[in-house]
Amino acid sequence: MSWFQKTISLPPKSAGSYLVTDHVTDALPELRSFKVGLLHLFLQHTSCALALNENWDDDVRADMSDALDRIVPQDKRGNLYRHNAEGPDDMPAHVKAALVGASITVPIKDGKLATGTWQGIWYLEFRRATHTRRVVATIQGERE
């Protein structure tokens, strides 16, 4: 059993849902040396999230962002949330991050991610301002 860990940065983005599968795999050429294993991705932030979801139709990502905005609205009048230290999108971003999650685990098979046909790794940014986010990538498995 072998372990590998590295911190990668996601592309700077403002609010939205982004497909980052290729970015992650490009940043982790070490994946190719694992015959079988698990890739765990942990986002080191509290106002964005990672998810596995649709990788083909861009409308799904736009619809997801819209749906999360309806579920957890911004505090336009200042009476929904107590925490507003960083602006009206801050507390809703924390709630969305808690709902979606800060980590995902993907199986590795023969040096590649063993995702389903239509699955991809999503980075969901919940703040309006552009941020660069860090992800700790941990691989556990058997090498070739």
Determine the number of helices (DSSP H or I, runs of at least 4 residues).
3
List unreliable stretches of 5+ residues: none
Residue-averaged pLDDT: 96
H/E order of the elements?
EEHEEHHEEEE
Q: Give the tally of β-strands.
A: 8
Sheet with the most strands, sense and barrel status: 5 strands, antiparallel
What class do helices, strands and sheet pairing give?
alpha+beta
- What proportion of the residues form beta strands (DSSP E)? 35-45%
Principal-axis shape: elongated
Properties at a glance:
single chain, 144 residues, alpha+beta, five-stranded antiparallel sheet, three-stranded antiparallel sheet, 3 helices
Describe this structure in words.
The protein has helices at residues 21-27, 58-71, 90-100; strands at residues 2-9, 16-19, 34-43, 48-54, 103-109, 112-113, 119-125, 134-143. By secondary structure, it is an alpha+beta fold. Strands 1-8-3-5-6 form a five-stranded antiparallel beta sheet, with helices on one face. Strands 2-7-4 form a three-stranded antiparallel beta sheet, sandwiched between helices. The longest helix is centred in the middle third of the chain and has 14 residues, at 58-71. It starts with a strand and ends with a strand.
